[in-house]
Amino acid sequence: MLHAVTPCPVVVHPDCVRHDPAAEIWLGVRMPGTEVAARVTVLEAALTGAGHPVLPARAHDDAVLREVHGDALVGFLRTAWEGWVAAGYPDLGPDRVVPYLFPHPEMSPPYARTPTALHARTGGFCYDTMTLLGPGSWEAIRGAVDAALTAVDVVQAGAPLAYALTRPPGHHATREAYGGSCYLNNAAVAAQALRHAGHERVAIVDLDAHHGNGTQAIFYERPDVLYASLHVDPGAGWFPHFVGFADETGTGAGTGANRNVPLAPGTADPGWLAGVRACAAAVSAHGASALVVSLGVDAAADDPESPLQVTRDGYAAAGRLLAELALPTVAVQEGGYHLPTLGDLVTATLHAMG
To answer: Which CATH number is 249's domain given?
Structure first.
């Protein structure tokens, strides 16, 4: 017997297609990027075709955003491209904002100065060479934040589940820095907005194939927001390399409010779903009254960024496990780069969550 699918409001901002990083600089080589604008159009088409209503993102002020990110980072992202053009860099060849120098602690003693050159200042905010800025990037970055905040509004108005079609993704963005194709942390902004909406405890479950180092860092000292992530083991050589290990459980008041489940490369549905169950159990133990899901689907076997072997059925099963928590839920798009299967993976997950 077929069961009717509960419609899930899909929040989209039209500017999210404007970001065009054009490439990634990886190991010193310019390579085609996988975080492309077509991700938005593919997802929107799949979800509308499945009967989910699309809502336009509503403009929000920066109040919640600036509780999650520092003013300096937000200001840099807002003005970087215009400054890059004004300084004449595209005329010299670099057609995107990209760092070349990074302030290692030994380059940042107490007497260090703020660099005058924009190409030097960029490395103070961007921690890798893969995450480029170009024309339209700021509008997309800020539009994704508005999509996440609008999804929170929809849930607070009574919907049990809302999905923010956020692009670019956000879970690698820390309070003061960006990287990993992420610029501002949409999931963290959503969690902070839910706190303002009256939820004393909020949980974030991150299904992306890679650890959300930015989300972890933002909430690592806080007891009110649990971060639980299952992801490929960074110790096996995967991004973000330096963090995402099981012994990272929070610090200070946040001790115990961080749960990492690293998985071996090649892990398929059984092991991955065991990780989802562990994250769901952490949410229950935390006593959260609202949930944010960082819905990355790049753990799928066909994904070009995938070190894991999760199937469509695995994602649907994960959706059912999270639905069993029976919490008002905001799903925020993270990774997922295989365009032929991207829409079906997200649709299957949201159907199960609804």
So the answer is: 3.40.800.20
User: And the tokens for 254?
Assistant: 């946040």
The reply to whether 123 falls in a domain is no
Close Cβ partners of 335 (under 8 Å, ≥ 6 residues apart): 169, 208, 209, 210, 296, 297, 298, 303, 305
d(CA 179, CA 183): 6
181: left (phi over 0), alpha (psi -120 to 50) or beta: left
pLDDT digits (tens, 9 = 90+) for 111-155: 889 999 999 999 999 999 999 999 999 999 999 999 999 999 999
pTM of the model: 0.97
The total number of structural domains in the chain stands at 1
90 within domain boundaries: no
Q: Give the integer Cα–Cα distance in Å for 328 and 13.
A: 22
User: Under a CB-based contact definition with an 8 Å cutoff, are residues 323 and 299 in contact?
Assistant: no
Q: Which residues are catalytic?
A: 172
The parent domain of residue 220 ranges over 10-70+136-353
- What are 236's two structure tokens? 């096996």
d(CA 110, CA 141): 32
In this structure, is residue 66 part of a structural domain?
yes
Residue 268 lies in a domain: yes
